[in-house]
């Protein structure tokens, strides 16, 4: 068993930075006003597939979905699955709503909004704590804030408390996907996951398994920017929840 104590979501540090950036465009604001209330997470009670979508289905959870392109692409790819995304940054929420609505920045999209997506504007761990243990089929943490300074390491999402929660919420055989282009965060994350080998199996046989984006893993804008602008290498990690 792990030698550390499982993380209590009521005592974990705030693991994100700013919550608002530049003013929203008119189309984005319209979606925040009209679409978000329709697909927002309920404020109370256990979070289950039945409660969100009216039927049982594989459940996915994305922590800090950024602009929402990965979440929306996966939801469009897997219409029979339910997707939950949490993001504290309102500009990211607004952009995700554009993707959910069909890629147009107005409330009257060309196609109906994706019916299998629910969004929480706020802290992911607060929502994750309300999901019954063993409920998730997939959990995603893609390009999280690296908090690169050593004194800020405790604010990284990849730490023992959150990872214990990830393990608890994933069903046996469920998959945790993690991606980063930040070398410091990469080393930190690998050290953390090495302490959780009783809970997770790293799905990796060769370096190509973490150096090349796997199939069914849509590219995020952060990943594209890391490559094109900063010339960073990007790493991809898949872990299976042991049962």
Automatic annotation (TrEMBL):
Q: Which SUPFAM superfamilies match?
A: S-adenosyl-L-methionine-dependent methyltransferases (SSF53335)
Reaction catalysed?
A: guanosine(46) in tRNA + S-adenosyl-L-methionine = N(7)-methylguanosine(46) in tRNA + S-adenosyl-L-homocysteine
Gene3D superfamilies attached to this UniProt entry? Vaccinia Virus protein VP39
Give binding positions for substrate.
Answer: 149, 181, 220-223
Which InterPro entries does UniProt cross-reference here? SAM-dependent_MTases_sf, tRNA_(Gua-N-7)_MeTrfase_Trmb, tRNA_methyltr_TrmB_bact
Annotated metabolic or biological route of this protein: tRNA modification; N(7)-methylguanine-tRNA biosynthesis
Enzyme class of the recorded protein, top EC level = transferase
Protein known as: tRNA (guanine-N(7)-)-methyltransferase
What's the source species for this entry? Novosphingobium organovorum
């Amino acid at each position: 068993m792990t030698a550390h104590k499982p993380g209590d979501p009521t005592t974990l540090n705030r693991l994100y930075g700013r919550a608002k950036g530049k003013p929203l465009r008119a189309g984005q604001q319209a979606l925040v006003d009209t679409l978000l209330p329709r697909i927002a997470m309920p404020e109370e009670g256990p979070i289950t597939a039945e409660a969100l979508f009216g039927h049982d289905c594989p459940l996915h959870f994305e922590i800090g979905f950024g602009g929402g392109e990965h979440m929306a692409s996966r939801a469009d790819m897997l219409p029979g699955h339910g997707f939950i995304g949490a993001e504290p940054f309102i500009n990211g929420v607004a952009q995700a709503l554009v993707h959910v609505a069909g890629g147009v920045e107005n409330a009257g999209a060309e196609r109906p909004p994706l019916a299998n997506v629910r969004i929480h504007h706020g802290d992911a761990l607060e929502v994750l704590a309300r999901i019954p243990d063993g409920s998730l089929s997939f959990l995603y943490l893609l390009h999280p804030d690296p908090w690169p300074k050593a004194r800020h390491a405790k604010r990284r999402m990849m730490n023992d408390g959150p990872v214990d929660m990830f393990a608890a919420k994933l069903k046996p055989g469920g998959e945790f996907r993690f991606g980063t282009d930040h070398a410091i965060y990469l080393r930190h994350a690998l050290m953390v996951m090495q302490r959780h080998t009783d809970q997770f199996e790293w799905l990796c046989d060769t370096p190509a398994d973490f150096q090349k984006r796997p199939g069914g893993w849509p590219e995020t804008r952060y990943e594209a920017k890391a490559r094109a602008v900063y010339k960073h290498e990007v790493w991809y990690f898949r872990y299976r929840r042991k049962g």
